[in-house]
């Protein structure tokens, strides 16, 4: 019941007047504008609350935004977390971009935990690890007898995530035909199990992640452009570890504490830290954790030395 603005439309050819269909289209168009404005206003309100002029440091942001699982204090990481804090309490869909191992899944869960849906399920579906012919039944579920082997009814991930958040990991791997069905779910907020003739309303927030270039996939006809723009209300790119080298020491200490056994207080020698900070980290944070775990297992003393590192790390430095 509030006027947020005005849309002006005219037609110069008086022989071709507007019709009722034009009015219906205009009303639908206006509703989309209003939805976008509402999200924008929500974000602006959150920005004033969370990122007031006094809040300039990561530590201050962390007091407002629960992100204990996100380690680091670099400027690039701060910019990503700052935006995540703004949009976490909205229902805006999010696409997380970045290389493998940059922590897209961790950020997705953090956004959920700071949302109004935090007491409801956070459901993950890995589009890259599930065969294409099984992904649809995983997503939508099925009724008993829907296909050979379907001996009992099974709810899908969309249904399990009702009222919560559904995280599509590696959305770029999803089959183009299944993308069309997902688009319909987003538009109608309804699902239909395989083998069922009834639909069910759902309320799900969608967060997606991919290491692929979506624009390139669209140009090759492997990703629907209309689905992309439906999902891309907010787009966040997580920086690779080589672009936030100042976080490597903090991350390494975090993983040392995480994997240390029998109360050992392991530390990195200065030489090891220097090597880690110079390495390019193609596997990003996931690779760093694996390296630290290896050091914890092989370390002969309380201080990890260069001989505890894999040879490929040393030779590349």
Gross morphology is: globular
Mean pLDDT: 88
Termini Cα gap: 63 Å
Please write the string of helix (H) and strand (E) elements. Answer: HHHEHEHEEHEHEEEHHEHEHHEH
Q: Radius of gyration, rounded?
A: 24 Å
**Biggest sheet, in brief?**
5 strands, parallel
Number of helices: 13
Uncertain spans, ≥5 residues at pLDDT below 50?
51-55
Provide the β-strand percentage band: 5-15%
- Which structural class best describes the helix and strand composition? alpha/beta
Kindly state the percentage of residues in helix. Answer: 40-55%
Explained architecture:
- The protein is of the alpha/beta class and 317 residues long.
- 45% of the residues lie in helices and 11% in strands.
- The chain has helices at residues 20-50, 58-64, 75-87, 104-113, 132-140, 157-160, 176-188, 214-219, 225-231, 248-259, 270-278, 284-298, 311-316, and strands spanning 94-97, 122-126, 141-142, 154-155, 165-169, 190-191, 200-201, 205-210, 234-237, 267-268, 303-304.
- The strands form four sheets. A five-stranded parallel sheet has the order 2-5-8-1-9.
- β6 (190-191) and β7 form a beta hairpin.
- α10 packs across α12.
- The chain is globular, with a radius of gyration of 24 Å.
- Mean pLDDT is 88; it is low at 51-55.
Helix and strand topology:
Elements: H1 20-50, H2 58-64, H3 75-87, E1 94-97, H4 104-113, E2 122-126, H5 132-140, E3 141-142, E4 154-155, H6 157-160, E5 165-169, H7 176-188, E6 190-191, E7 200-201, E8 205-210, H8 214-219, H9 225-231, E9 234-237, H10 248-259, E10 267-268, H11 270-278, H12 284-298, E11 303-304, H13 311-316
Parallel strand pairs: 1-8, 1-9, 2-5, 5-8, 10-11
Antiparallel strand pairs: 3-4, 6-7
Helix pairs in contact: 10-12
